[in-house]
Structures
1.
Amino acid sequence: MNDDTAMTTAGARRFHTLVVLVENKPGVLTRVAGLFARRGFNIDSLAVARTDDPRFSRITIMVDAESAPLEQVVKQLDKLINVVEIRDLDPSESVERELMMVIVEGQPQERGEIMDLVRIFEARVLNVGVDKMMLSLSGAPSRLDDFEDLLRPYGIVELQRSGRIALPRLSKTS
């Protein structure tokens, strides 16, 4: 079991993926983040972008349920004026993705091994220097974790992850 589906001692999921549809107005993200800070809620990951309708943005927040009860988080979010909808996405009923960019030491004698990992994980080479390579991978957070772990022995120079985004799975019945 990876850390994004870790269970609490009571058997409930520790991390929850909240997808919050908000009005696309200045200051909304500040108010949402401020609510978490004021209440002492821990955010594990945060991603925000405009939706297909320019009037709205979607905020995807990974919340650590051990820092505060989920119901309390949802109630506080629901009180914010610009919040339109809040959904708690169960990992088994949603698709989650994240983007990682990484600069790894890439001495010429090691590049073949690194390229094998790139092919296996279907990553992309973004840039190559004399002794370093810049790679990117998008996918399920656990897949990025695995890729990162396998790159560590080569020497990770710099790493950036986007934070996860999620949508509910599509129904297989009509």
Note: The helical segments are 28-39, 70-78, 111-121, 141-151.
2.
Amino acid sequence: MRKALLLIVLLGLSGAAAGQTSILGKHDADKPVNLSADKMEADLKGKTVTYSGNVIGVQGDIRLRADTMKDDSPNSKIYINGKVVVDSPATGTVTGDNAIYDLTKKFVTLSGHVVLHKQGQVTMQGSLLTVNMVTGKATLGAAPVAATANQAAAPGAPGGRVTGVITPKSQTP
């Protein structure tokens, strides 16, 4: 199920960026994925499905929220746009303006105002997060993101730099 794959990929983002050994942590990818939205529109000829309006995906204790999600089967890509939020009690929260999962290359890209937050320990900000799902390597950058056909241009972090705060565990409440 392509939707389950997308959700699983996005759920692993915060773990990868925070340096966990497994990109998915202890997440059970075999659990069912529940999707809901205000509207679902299918283009049978174009082989696309678009969910819009308060899109929510839940698998186990992990939750994805966004304004829209489009499964573009002919191009093997899934586009998620507008206030993308992935919450995981185990790995934290990742937010961004837009996300693209390239199923062929196995790359996830979050763009816009990207924030990675692990409760009480790490907060990192940038404008472009890429995750190689094969190697588990994640890169957070801050260069301005160019506009594409499916998303608007997004500004980089102030000064074009990645910023963050890391709190030692001894100071974590």
Note: The mean pLDDT is 76.
